[in-house]
Every structure is written in C-alpha cells, then in structure tokens.
Amino acid sequence: MLSLSVLLGLASPAAAQFGLLEQGAKRAKQVSDFNWSDEEKAALGQKVSELVRQRYGVVQDPAVHKYVTLVGRTVTEKSTKPGLPWTFIVLDTDAVNAFAAPHGYVHITRGALALMKDESELAGVLAHEIVHVAEEHTIDALKKNTLKSAAAEQVAGGNGLIEFLANAAYNNILDNAYSRGDEGAADTQGITLISKAGYAPQGLGSFLTTLADRNKSATEKRGLFSSHPEMQARQDKLTTTITKGKLAGTQLVADRYKATIKYKPVPQSQIATVAEGTKGLAGGSSASAKDSKSGTTAKADQPQEAPKKKGFGLGKLVSGGGSESKSAQVVGSGGARGLDPEKDAKGGGNPAVVAVKVTPADLQAFKKAGSLT
Fold first, then answer.
1. What's CA 138's distance to the chain center, in Å?
2. How far, in Å, CA of 299 to CA of 282, rounded?
3. Would strands 297-299 and 273-274 be described as parallel, antiparallel, or unpaired?
4. How does 66-103 read in b/e, with b if 16+ C-beta sit within 10 Å?
5. Count of other CB atoms within 10 angstroms of residue 3
6. Mean of the per-residue pLDDT values of the chain
7. pLDDT in tens, 181-226
8. Long-range contacts made by residues 288-292, C-beta under 8 angstroms, separation at least 24?
9. pLDDT per residue as tens digits for the range 233-253
10. Which phi and psi (to 5°) does residue 16 adopt?
C-alpha cells in the first residue's frame, strides 16, 4: 500500500506520479484507509490554511492576534490535544464565520469578532472549532464526503493529490460539511471546555442568539454553523448539557474584550461579495483592498481561485494558489446574484500569517487577570 507521504507529495516525484495514476476508486479507498501521521496532518492543515487565508486575507494586527491566541490557548489547555501547534488566525472579512483545519489551525473572521459582546462568546466559538481539530472531524469529513464523491474521478489537470485533498478539505470547511453528530459534539464538548477554563458556558448560546437575530431575514441557512439543526433545538441541547454536566464557569470578561476588539458588525445584506468563478482575495489584482486596521485603501496583487471544476460533489475544487484570466467582480451586497454573503464575502489583500509569541508567563497572567483557570 502507498504511504500517505507519497500521495501528499512528501516523497519522490516518481512515487507521487504513481499516486496520480491510480484509478479513482482505488485511490479513494487508499486515502480513506490511511493511518495519517502527524507530519501528514500538519502538511494538509498548512495547505488548507493557506487556501483559507488566500481567500479571505488576514487582519494584520498583532495585538488582535495575540489576544485571540491567548483566549484560544486558554481553551486548548483543557482540550484532548493541548500539545498541538495551535495557530489562531483572524481573517480579514466582514463575513461571520470560523473554520478549523487539521493539526491545530483555527480561523475566525473579524466579522464574527465584531458581532460578539464578550470573551466568553469568543471562547465558545473558538472551542467549537478546537473540538473539530482535536477530534479530527475535518479529516473524517474529508474521508466521508469528498472521497466518496471522488471515487470515479481522476485529479483534473494533472494536479497532485495533496492539491486534491487540500482543496477538497477547504471546500468542505467552507460548506460546513461536518456530520450532525460532529457538529453536536463540537457544541457540547466546546462549552464543557470553556467552563473548565472558567468561562460562562452560556457564551456560545449567547453568540448564537445574536447571530440568529442578525440573520432572521435571511431565506437560507448560511455561514457559521449553517449545517446545524434548527436554532431552538440546538439551544435546548446546550442548556441540557450545562445542566446535566453541572458546568459552573462564570466569567464573561466583557471589559477586556471590548477594550481589545473594536470592529463594528456589518449587516448580512450589506456584506460585499465576490462573484462566482472570480473569487480573489480582495476582488483580484484590479481591485482595491481596504486595510481593516488603518482604514486606508491600497492596491494589491493577489492570487485568485481558478474556476471551479465539476463532478466532485461537495468538493468542487479550486486552484491551490494559481491564477485565472478574469479579474474578480465585487458585488455590492451579499444578496446579489444568489451569492452567499458569508461564504462568498470579499476578503482582505494580505494572506500572511501574523507571528504571535505567547509565553507560559503571558498565558498565566492573562488567565489571572480574567479570573480564569
């Protein structure tokens, strides 16, 4: 049997080419059966994160990233995999969303941060994504969803399998293609984690209530947690988990949140989107990107997503950083042309990861200041 390292392009070109020549059904079974190594998960997670960052850009604000990282690390200490190289990334878009990628990558949009009222809500959303990572729901979804639909397909255009897997996982997370069981587990395990850290477990439910109110005029379930059951059933399950689990965390930490996060929410109907088939980071190289921190506008040359390929079901593949001939067309509002204002939202122009250094002393001081554990 081929090792996953071969299929992920971590071995010789000749071996990788052999993987590319495998028939779709055989390849799907091979990947589904693999016992993924940490190195392989890390390689996949890194490439998926690159695609997400290329799509939406990254807020270039070290203070915001350090703050989100400190909240995230406070939660990951209580997770089943505290030792993963956790990376928390704030995406530069008005959309309200969050994405988990394998091996420790957690992304949240500044639009989501703008909608939150306190740190317990941020902790609740981050915890949901942390559970997806720790329990490897993204890899499970990749096996169950994309590989089934790819069973009769070859990798189009001669792309390597790592591109296939990364693009498929990327599309899965953008479509919230987790099973209902995985989503429910991310909810209930997530609020358990934040309560152990000292946060009020009601934080996630509070944010969801705000989100539901924001989206009440929408005709479709879109964006963050769109694959979940109806909101009332979900809230009832959260309440039951808090009661039965005797979750006793109490901290909201509202003042620190408001002192750090200054973004203003944008109504879903007013989110600028990027037209189908022309999605670039901020409308393509011919468009202007507005810096979320300074408010200034500057030109940026960005890679764009290639036209989506048909025949892959959930995983309609996009290019892993290539270019296309058309410039992206930015549409004024999310309701235009049937676009999803959360998924298809315009993003910022800089995909670079913001370096964050958090020492044990930093984390301890952060927890003490917030009366966390």
1. 10
2. 10
3. unpaired
4. bbbbbbbbbbbbbbeeeebebbbbbbbbbbbbbbbbbb
5. 16
6. 77
7. 999 999 999 999 999 999 999 999 999 999 988 988 776 655 555 5
8. 289/57, 289/348, 289/349, 289/350, 290/348, 291/60, 291/348, 291/349, 292/59, 292/60, 292/61, 292/92, 292/110, 292/263, 292/348
9. 889 999 999 999 999 999 999
10. -65, -40
Spatial CB neighbours of 137, under 8 Å, sequence gap ≥ 6: 100, 131, 178, 179, 182, 185, 186
How many CA atoms within 13 Å lie on the side-chain side of 119?
Answer: 32
pLDDT value of residue 323? 31
The two beta strands, 273-274 and 87-91, are unpaired
Written as six digits, the tokens of 100 are 């988990």
CA distance 17 to 250: 55
| Residue 277 neighbours by CB distance under 10 Å | 15
pLDDT range class, residue 83, cuts 50, 70, 90: very high
Other CB atoms closer than 10 Å to residue 274's CB: what's the count? Answer: 25
d(Cα 156, Cα 150) in Å, to the nearest integer?
Answer: 11
C-alpha–C-alpha distance, residues 67 and 53, integer Å: 19
Quick check: 22 pLDDT over 60? no
| Residue with the two structure tokens 């995983």 | 315
Q: Is the dihedral of CA 194, 199, 201, 204 positive or negative?
A: negative
Pairing verdict, β 98-101 and 87-91:
unpaired
CB 347 within 8 A of CB 283: no
69-83, 132-146, 309-323 — which is least confidently predicted? 309-323
Top pLDDT among 319 and 167 is at 167
Pairing of strands 297-299, 288-290: antiparallel
